[in-house]
Amino acid sequence: MSTALPSGSHWVTAWAASAQGAYPVGSTIAQPDLNRALPEMKQGLVNQSLRMVLRPALWSPRFRLRLSNRFGNKPLLLRGMSLALHMGGGALVPGTRIALPDQTIAAGSFEWTPAIEWAALPESAQSMQGRSLAFSAWVEGSSGPITWHAKAMATSYLSQPGDQSAAVSDSELGFPHTTTSSFFIDALDAWLSAEACTLAAFGDSLTDGTATTLNGHDRWTDVLQRELWAAGRQDLAVVNAGIGGNQVTGPAPGASPWRGGPAATERLARDVLDLSAVRTIFWLQGINDFSDNGQAEAAAVFEAMAYSVQRMRAQGVRVLGATVPSALGSTRPGHGSERQNSRRRAFNAEVGKGALFDDFVDLDLALTDPLTGRLHSAFNGDSTLGEPGDGLHPNRAGHAAMARCILKKLP
C-alpha cells in the first residue's frame, strides 16, 4: 500500500468498542475462565502482556489508537506497545510490528497514541478489507481496575501475570489465555481522504451482537460494512458503539456500577460524538428501559432520546433511528412481559410519526412475527453457542435482515 495520501485527509474512526465499566462488571459472551490470567480483580493486569485484536472498517497506512483508563483508579502504565498485522490466534505477521512510545494514562481519562505509519503494507487498501490488526503492550506494575468492553464478539489474548516479554514478540506462545472482551482500547482512527466519514451504531445488545457468531463478524454493523465494500464504498466506516444491557435513561449518574454501562444519554459524547468524522448515527435502543429492570415508560425514553438527538444535530450529525423489535415471551430474565411489550409498542408508535429522527428503519416490521407478536422464529436462535434463542436477541440471520433494511436508508 502506498503511503501517498490525498490532500485534505483527516482522521476517521474505523473501529470502536465503547468502554462500559471495570472488569468484571458487564455482559460477556463465551468468555473463558479468566481466574488464572486475572487472579485479583482489583489488581488487574500485573507486569503482564496483552494482545488486543481489532478489525478496521477502512484501511490506511496511518492509524492511531485511543487508550482508555476511564474506569481505572490509578495511572495506567503501558509499555512495549506496538501495532501489527494479525496473522491468526495470538500471532503477528512477521515484519509488520510498528513500535510505539510508552504511555501513561491517568485514572479516569484517555489518551491518543501518536500516529502509527507503515512504510508500506503488503497489499492495497481494498484487498485488506476483512483483515485485522493486533495491538500489543505490557502493563508496568498493576493496572488496577481494567477499563473494558465486555462483549467484543472476537478473541484477544493475555499472558501469564508477570510475563512482559510476550508483548514484544511476534509469537503467540506467550499468550496462553484468551478473552472475548477488549481491554484499554475504545477507538481506532484511520487517516483517510476528505470524503470519508464514520457511521456510529449506538445502542444495546441488539447492536453489540448478543447471539451472533463469535469471531464470525456477523453483527448487523459487520454485515452492513461488507455490503458497502461490495458496492465499492470506501468512504464510509461503520463502527459499533453498542453495549449489552445498556439503557437510554438509566442508571442515574453516580449509581452503582451496572453491567450495561452508563446511560446512553450520559455516554453519548464520549462513545459517539467525540469519535472522529462521525457524520451519521444509527440509534436502536429502548428494550432494556422497558424491561422489569428498567421499568421506564415509553414517554420518558422518547423524551430523553429527543433531547439527545438535538445534541447530535447541533454537531451536524444525521440521526437515523429504528422501531424496537419484540421481546414478548422472551426467556431472558427481566424481559418478555406484556407490560414491556406495551411500552415498546407505544414507543414505536411515536417513532413511526417520523418526528424523532431524521429518518427511521422499521425493524419491528422486519423482525417481529405479525401472527405471534414475538421475534420471528427464523431469527430466534443463538448463533454464538448453538443453543435455542431467547426470544430477544436475533441470530446471525436476523442481523443480516437488519443490515439489509438499514442499507436502504444510507445515501
Index terms:
single chain, 411 residues, alpha+beta, Rossmann fold, 2 domains, eight-stranded antiparallel beta sheet, five-stranded antiparallel beta sheet, 7 helices, 18% helix
Tell me the layout of helices and strands.
Layout: E1 10-16, E2 21-22, E3 49-54, E4 62-68, E5 76-88, E6 91-92, E7 98-99, E8 103-105, E9 110-112, E10 116-117, E11 133-139, E12 147-149, E13 156-158, E14 177-179, E15 182-183, E16 185-192, E17 197-203, H1 205-208, H2 220-230, E18 236-242, H3 264-273, E19 278-284, H4 298-314, E20 318-322, H5 338-352, E21 359-361, H6 363-367, E22 381-382, E23 387-388, H7 396-407
Parallel strand pairs: 17-18, 17-19, 19-20, 20-21
Antiparallel strand pairs: 1-16, 2-12, 3-11, 3-13, 4-9, 4-10, 4-16, 5-6, 5-7, 5-8, 5-11, 12-15, 13-14, 22-23
Helix pairs in contact: 2-7, 4-5
Helix content: 10-25%
Strand/helix succession: EEEEEEEEEEEEEEEEEHHEHEHEHEHEEH
Domain count: the total is: 2
User: Strand tally, please?
Assistant: 23
What is the CA–CA distance across the termini?
A: 28 Å
Runs in which pLDDT lies below 50 for 5 or more consecutive residues are none
Averaged pLDDT? 95
Would you tell me which CATH topology of the largest domain applies? Rossmann fold
**In CATH's first tier, which class of the largest domain applies?**
Alpha Beta
Q: What global shape is seen?
A: globular
- Beta content: 25-35%
Structural class estimated from helices and strands: alpha+beta
* Main sheet summary: 8 strands, antiparallel
Number of helices: 7
CATH superfamily of the largest domain: SGNH hydrolase
- Name the CATH architecture of the largest domain: 3-Layer(aba) Sandwich
Radius of gyration: 20 Å
